[in-house]
Each structure stands twice: as structure tokens, then as C-alpha cells.
């Protein structure tokens, strides 16, 4: 239980700096190789090395809370930025190398093809240049850190630093629960933070509704293989993993390390559930991809026989269903009560009674604008008409409710005051019937 978890052990910055330098040695080696040559020498292989080294070091930094420490946040962001650029460059370089072998539609004219090639070349030039700039800045940052460690006497000088073995200090840190650096970097409270929290919590509740049928169907006695093929195919698995990843990214962008997060432990709990589930879903993606790759009908039969002799498909499907997907779904659902409690905590629920104008009925087009407002804000809104209540985020439900009560003189909207204020503005602007350009500035997002 969250309340039973021990308090974090605080790691001194000087001690962490001495640990960080040897862990950064692989990345520094890649940076040196990238920076000693000219800009065009950064190719696909170097991008792959850079990506891998950044991922490993970023994981180490995150394990110890470096992102939230004023001294180590800059290097964490530099490493994360390099990882993103290296990943982008890897894919661009791959496309550039394989472009002649791609079978494109013959009817596409040469000018159009050249536009594609020119765009690819511009992208590669930009990303390569950005990689070099960040690599140079990151390398200089490590040099300064090395000088600081040497001056403080808390580490060893360059050339005598040895990588930390599995049984060394790093292993002790991991076994000891990864002591964290002090959180000396706290973001100011951003505008409309409460609304963003409510939106993340609402998205989490919707995720729960999406995974509930998965877990219900998976808890049966039939073999795992048919269930995986029907409910967790690779395409379905990637979609679900992307959904959870988007939720986690939204949390990190709008909620993570804010003042409200530090005040409300439920927020970090929600992030913990989504992050844990995400990694299990992603592991499932890799396994179903492995299986589907050689289950395809056009694959050579002998290949499937060889791989089946090495990796039992029934066991693989059982692991995917019972140990990954169902566990991930259960982890998501375990956070549902927290998510549902967060929504009203961070919304200011109000009611708006709006008189209907017979000359501007709530037909399909304005109903779609109401739905767009609700989805823009991301918090639940109800529409009540003549006692019938529906979800204002569903155009079908709105049209059914309004169509069932053609003589109604007013509607009642109930939900967070922010979407309600915009709905009121929409009705005041005659539901946009005079054109979207006539809508007030607050509703400019409806024009996009």
C-alpha cells in the first residue's frame, strides 16, 4: 500500500556525481566519436550507438531522481534530448539508405518524388546538426562535472575511473531502492493546472473502461492463443500501448513535478500505475510481434517449425495473456478509484441552464461543436433535457436526447465550469450558425 512505503533515502549530490561519471563513460565514448569527425560522419550506426547509450544513462539518471534536481536536471535534459534526436536520425538514415529499394507507385511523377527526397535531405541535415550541437554541449557538461568531482575529492580523476560492476555501488543502490537526489527543482504552478489534472484523470478512467473487457474476456479457461489473436493482436497491442503512453506523457508534461503533485500523493500514484502497466503492455507488444512474424501464412513452414522448437507458442501466449496483459489491466483498474476521486477534486462542478432558441435548433452541426468543446477540455459534462440525461461528449446521445424532446424550452448542462463557460459562449453566438468566424476569441480552437 502507498502508505506503507518507506520514505526515500536522499543521495548526496557529491556522491551521485562520482557515481554518474563512470556510468556516463559509454555515452562519452560515443560523443567523442561523433564529435571528432565532420558533421556528415554521423550515420545510422553512430545514431544507433548514441540512442542506446542515451537510453541507458537516462534510465540511470531517472532512477535517482536527477530530473528533479537543480544541479543534475540540465544533463538529464541534454541526454533525453540527444536520445530523441538520435532516434529520429536513425529512422531518417534508414529511410535514406533504403529509399531506392522501396517499391513506390510508378504513376507518381518525378517532381513529386523529388519533393519527398528534398524533404528527407532537409530533415537529415537539420537533425544531424542538432545532434552535433547537443552532443558538444553534453560533452562539455561532463567535462565540467569531472572537474568539479576532482576538485571536491569525492571521485577519481579522468583515466583512473573504472566502470561500476554489477556487484559494485550501483547494484547496492538498485537493491537499496535507488536513493534519490534532493528535489531542488520544482516547477511553478502553471495556468489551469487543475483542469489538466482533471483531464489526465478523466483519460485514466476512460482507459479503465477500455481494458475492462480485456480482463473479463481473458479470465476464462480456454487456451491463451485464441484470446491473444482475438483480443491482443499486434495491431491492438500497439494501439493500447500508445494509449497508455499518451496518458503517461500528458501527466509528465502537465502534472509531473508541479506544486500540486507535491501536495497530492494520489497524483504520483496514478502515474505509477500507468507507467507500470505501460511497460508490461510494451513487453507484450514485442512478444506478439515475435509470434505473429512467423505465424504469417506466407512465411516458410520450416522457419516456423524451427522457431517453435525453440520458443513454445503456447507458453508464449500464456505469458502474454496471464503474466503481462491481464496483470497490466489489473494494475490499471487498481488505480480507477483514485482516478475517479481526482476528477471531482480538480473540477469546479457547476450547472448552466440555457434557453433554447426555436430559430437555432440544436441539430447535428452545433451539437458537434458542443462535443468539440467538451473534448477540448477533457472533463465530463452532462446534458439534461426534460429529465433525460446524456453524455455531452457524444453527438449521438445529444441528438437522441434532443430529438426525443422536440418541445423542450431549455437544456441543463452539468460539469466543470470551464467547458460550461465555453458552451454558454457557443449558445450566445447562436451556435455558430452565422459561421465559425463569428465565434468569440475564446472559442477559436473550434475553427481548427
Q: Top keywords for this entry?
A:
4 strands; 448 residues; disordered N terminus; 17 helices
- Rounded mean pLDDT score: 82
Task: Determine the N-to-C terminus distance.
Answer: 45 Å
What is the H/E string?
Answer: HHHHHHHHHHHHHHEHEEHEH
Share in helix: 55-70%
Strand order across the biggest sheet? 1-4-2-3
What is the multimeric organization of the chains shown? single chain
**Cα radius of gyration in angstroms:** 27 Å
> Biggest sheet, in brief?
4 strands, antiparallel
Query: Number of DSSP strands?
Result: 4
The coarse overall form would be globular
Proportion of residues in β-strands: 5-15%
Contiguous runs where pLDDT drops below 50 for at least 5 residues: 1-6, 156-176
Number of helices: 17
Helix/strand structural class: mainly alpha
Amino acid at each position: 500500500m502507498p502508505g506503507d512505503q518507506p520514505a526515500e533515502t536522499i543521495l548526496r549530490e557529491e556522491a551521485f556525481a562520482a557515481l554518474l561519471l563512470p556510468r556516463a563513460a559509454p555515452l562519452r565514448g560515443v560523443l567523442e566519436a561523433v564529435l571528432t569527425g565532420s558533421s556528415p560522419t554521423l550515420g545510422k550506426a553512430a545514431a544507433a550507438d548514441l540512442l542506446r547509450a542515451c537510453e541507458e544513462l537516462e534510465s540511470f539518471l531517472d532512477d535517482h531522481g536527477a530530473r528533479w534536481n537543480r544541479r543534475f536536471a540540465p544533463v538529464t535534459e541534454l541526454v533525453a534530448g540527444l536520445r530523441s534526436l538520435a532516434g529520429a536520425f536513425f529512422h531518417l538514415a534508414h529511410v535514406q539508405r533504403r529509399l531506392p529499394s522501396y517499391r513506390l507507385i510508378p504513376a507518381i511523377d518525378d517532381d513529386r518524388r523529388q519533393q519527398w527526397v528534398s524533404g528527407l535531405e532537409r530533415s537529415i541535415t537539420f537533425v544531424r546538426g542538432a545532434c552535433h550541437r547537443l552532443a558538444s554541449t553534453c560533452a562539455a557538461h561532463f567535462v565540467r562535472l569531472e572537474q568539479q568531482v576532482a576538485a571536491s575529492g569525492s571521485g577519481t580523476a579522468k583515466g583512473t575511473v573504472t566502470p561500476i560492476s554489477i556487484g559494485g555501488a550501483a547494484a547496492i543502490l538498485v537493491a537499496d531502492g535507488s536513493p534519490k537526489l534532493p528535489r531542488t527543482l520544482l516547477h511553478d504552478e502553471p495556468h489551469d493546472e487543475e483542469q489538466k489534472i482533471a483531464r489526465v484523470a478523466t483519460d485514466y478512467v476512460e482507459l479503465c473502461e477500455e481494458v475492462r473487457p480485456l480482463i473479463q474476456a481473458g479470465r476464462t479457461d480456454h487456451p491463451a492463443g485464441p484470446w491473444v489473436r482475438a483480443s491482443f493482436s499486434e495491431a491492438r497491442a500497439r494501439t493500447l500501448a500508445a494509449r497508455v503512453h499518451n496518458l503517461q506523457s500528458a501527466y509528465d508534461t502537465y502534472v509531473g513535478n508541479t506544486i500540486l503533485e507535491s501536495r497530492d500523493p494520489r497524483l504520483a500514484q496514478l502515474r505509477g500505475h500507468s507507467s507500470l502497466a505501460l511497460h508490461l503492455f510494451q513487453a507484450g507488444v514485442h512478444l506478439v510481434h515475435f509470434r505473429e512474424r512467423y505465424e504469417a501464412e506466407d512465411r516458410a513452414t520450416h522457419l516456423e517449425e524451427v522457431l517453435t522448437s525453440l520458443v513454445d507458442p503456447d507458453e508464449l501466449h500464456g505469458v502474454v495473456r496471464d503474466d503481462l496483459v491481464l496483470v497490466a489491466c489489473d494494475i490499471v483498474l487498481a488505480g480507477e478509484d483514485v482516478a475517479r476521486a481526482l476528477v471531482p477534486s480538480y473540477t469546479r462542478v457547476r450547472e448552466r441552464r440555457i434557453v433554447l432558441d426555436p430559430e437555432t435548433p440544436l441539430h447535428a452541426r452545433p451539437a458537434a461543436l458542443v462535443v468539440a468543446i467538451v473534448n477540448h477540455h477533457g472533463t465530463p459534462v452532462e446534458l439534461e433535457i426534460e429529465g433525460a440525461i446524456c453524455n455531452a461528449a457524444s453527438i449521438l446521445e445529444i441528438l437522441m436526447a434532443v430529438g426525443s424532446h422536440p418541445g423542450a424550452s431549455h437544456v441543463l448542462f452539468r460539469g466543470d465550469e470551464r467547458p460550461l463557460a465555453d458552451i454558454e459562449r457557443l449558445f450566445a453566438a447562436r451556435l455558430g450558425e452565422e459561421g465559425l468566424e463569428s465565434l468569440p476569441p475564446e472559442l477559436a480552437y473550434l475553427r481548427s
